[in-house]
Description:
Layout: H1 3-12, H2 37-43, H3 51-56, H4 69-76, E1 86-92, H5 97-109, E2 116-123, H6 133-138, E3 146-150, H7 156-167, E4 172-176, E5 180-182, H8 187-196, E6 200-209, E7 216-217, E8 223-227, E9 233-237, H9 240-248, E10 254-255, E11 264-267, H10 268-273, H11 287-297, E12 301-313, H12 326-341, H13 346-352, H14 365-373, H15 379-385, E13 396-400, E14 402-404, E15 410-412, E16 423-425, E17 439-442, E18 447-449, E19 452-455, E20 464-467, E21 476-478, E22 485-487, E23 493-497, E24 500-504, E25 515-517
Parallel strand pairs: 1-2, 1-4, 2-3, 6-12
Antiparallel strand pairs: 4-11, 5-12, 6-7, 8-9, 10-12, 13-17, 14-25, 15-16, 17-18, 18-19, 19-20, 21-22, 23-24
Main location: Golgi
Family: Belongs to the glycosyltransferase 2 family. GalNAc-T subfamily.
GO molecular function: carbohydrate binding; glycosyltransferase activity; metal ion binding
Amino acid sequence: MDKNTADQLKILMDTPAFKYSPHGSNGDGVKIPDHLKNLEESRFSENNFNVVASEMISVNRTLPDYRSDACRISGGKINTTELPRASIIITFHNEAWTTIIRTLHSISNRSPRHLIEEIVLVDDYSDKYWLKGPLDIYVRQFEIPVHVTHLPERSGLIRARLTGAKIAKGPILLFLDSHIEVSEGWLEPLISRVADDRTRIIAPIIDNISDEDFGFSTGRTDLWGGFSWILSFKWFDMNGNDTQRLIAKKAEPIRTPTIAGGLFAINREYFYEMGAYDEGMEVWGGENVEISFRIWMCGGSMEIHPCSHVGHVFRTKTPYSFTKEVNFVIRRNQARTAEVWMDEYKEFFFKMVPSAQKMEIGDLQERKSLRERLKCKPFKWYLKNVCSECHMPSEYHSLGAIVNKLNGKCVDRGGRVLGGPPGLGTCIHSHEQQGNQVWSWTGNKEIRSQNFCLSSNKKGSELKIEMCNGSEDQKFEFNRKIGNIIHQTSGKCMTNAESVATVDDCKNSRQEQVWDLEGLKK
Length: 522
């Protein structure tokens, strides 16, 4: 070690994090003393989390065992001697010193050594000095082999992970973020489930580490992953039957249509057989939904394991710079997903994000050929068999704006209060806000915009926006000949009431009750 690196490392380790520190023990949050308040505030923007709090917490901090009793019992029954080893891949760009080091220590402290082949760190062209020589030297102390690769240019999470996967030697790849802490018993259930079925992707419960004080709060074990019409990942509550199943079997994996993407395990050979990541995607964003569609449609499955807990620092926004505007990058990646995997349902995305229709999204032939080669099922199959409770209808009659004949106004949910009436506003045709005017008259007779449905009651006394629930109050007919939208149980017609839409007695001559459903199928 040269003197400069030695001096840097000495300074970096001169914080409570590398000495005995009671702060944050057992997953508790840290209270910043008054004399550090100004420093806390000024340094928050470095990583968009409380760096000062992190530096007060030991890199070897203690955590409770967050598993249920059922999980502790089932975990004790796993024969780990027969399980394959995992290569843990962690990519990072300008990560804070104490968070990446705490990530490594938590893995080392709470993982059976014989189950880890190595840890592969991929530095995505960081410019912080502590992620160069000091990191290279520090990781030598771990019993687990830790390999650090420094990329020569900014590549983004997707390509950085692909670099890490190429380096990895273990039969299982386990992708993690660089600001996480694992808890007791986290690794065994992930490896066990992949070992039982090589076509299975498994993700842990993601616990929350506060970006303000680094306190732990356990993630819910009654959620599964879905997606929105703009192809953003979205958590869904289990329905009653699934909740009962979970109560009865608190150690059973949860079937999930999509994964959050930051943390998951997969068989290494299967990862490549299924097309790894889409190398045409840029930087970060949307890759988790793409891999979720692909795995399910092409013969695999996905689960979340309630017995595996990994804490993650959630931030309100990314502190990192992109060569392109972040929303553009994400929308471009999502557009690639829509074009390759969603068949006719891609129109849901493009109606919501009209700007994506004009984006240059790169060559898709390789990914389309992959889909053909793997003999993947249609997206309609995915909606019916995997994600039937997602907000995208597998059967629908129309998709687009609902336009009133009287004044050309569009039904709009933007800025409206849940339980209040839908608005009527100037129709928007080429702006992102158009998404608030995109409605689908579904095969279940709902008038739906994502998870919001138009609703009335048996008396037809009002029209309002409610969360979709499948009730009779949310079913409508459309008279194609006249253009009336008729509430099924009350028999009343949707009516233009100037700034809002309401329901009223149907009268064929009233232009206020004549509507055009954009994208109406014949």
